[in-house]
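Morning F.,

Quick status update on the modeling queue. The single chain you submitted on Monday has been processed. Sequence for confirmation:
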Amino acid sequence: MRKGLLVFLSINTIIVIFLVRSVFTLLTLLVEDGSADAIHSAEIPAPNSPLIDDRPHLIPKIIHQTYVNESVPEHWREAQKSCVDLHEDYEYKLWTDAKSREFIATEYPWFLATFDNYSQPIQRADAIRYFVLSHYGGIYIDLDDGCNRRLDPLLSYPAWVRRTKPTGISNDAMGSVPHHPFFTLVIESLIPYNRNWKLPYITVMYSTGPLFLSVIWQEYKRGRGRNIAELGAQVGGVVGAGAGNVGKGLGRWDGSESGRVRVLMGDEYNKKPWSFFRWHGGSSWHGKDARLIFWMGKHWMLITATGFLIAGIVGLALWWVYGRVLLIGERRRKGGQGIMLSVGGIVGKGSWVVQRIPFLRKTSSKERYELIESRHDV
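Structure tokens below.
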């Protein structure tokens, strides 16, 4: 039984290690607060401060936004106008569906099949923002994010994203210089991460959305790049000869300041007088499955406890089944052995052997008998 227990525990340990390894990056997001790369309020000049002009402008003065067509809905026009009016010296690019596809077909033809085959329109809206930031540089802003002040101080960082809750980073406001290694890795990771997870919300989040971006961010910081050589081979294998130099740009952060991705924290993003943005409401692509996910997020402690309970019950059930299998095997093994008997009882176990049967004879008129030599073999 001790040997059986050791085997059972070893198998379960291997399974647990495999599962943890598979979701290790997701687990690290639970303890990642972005503070190591945070853009702190103390390093950001106040609005209209003369110190803003003394800072280097690394990111091009371009604002990117996306929508289905040129007719932006009324409830987002105020947010859009606030960014355009505050940045008259910036180039403004609204990427419609038609313009986005034309751009991908022209500049990144190896990605066009994936772009066209996305099941959700929001996946194309997510993907195009990564490509235009990598290609042109500039600042991407969701249409439901209005500008609260000029974004000039954010031009001083080679790349930045914003912190989101409960963990990770969001893709609704980002900035980058052209061809920053992080966004190069992001666009080259889109094909390997393009999977259907059945639920639309999970599919979007983990193939192109904030969860996808957060995972790539973690891998980039840890220097993994999702196994650089393997990722390059996967991308090249999918897009074939049209890939060009896909995979060659895959690298890892070397620790330099130029490769660093800074993080805009909550107060600097929204809700404060000095914040850069004002949120106007959005997320129109969310469906019923999204409400389920949000409910799970609010009750994560209950779900976690339930998960441990279920795991315990399953573990005990597996242990019981394993014990029954061992018991049945032991009974069958014993049932296949011979048992030899003599007049005195059991004399041994194992293979059948020739055994002499003793005989008795009468020695007197009284009912007395003595043992004589056996005369027969069996």
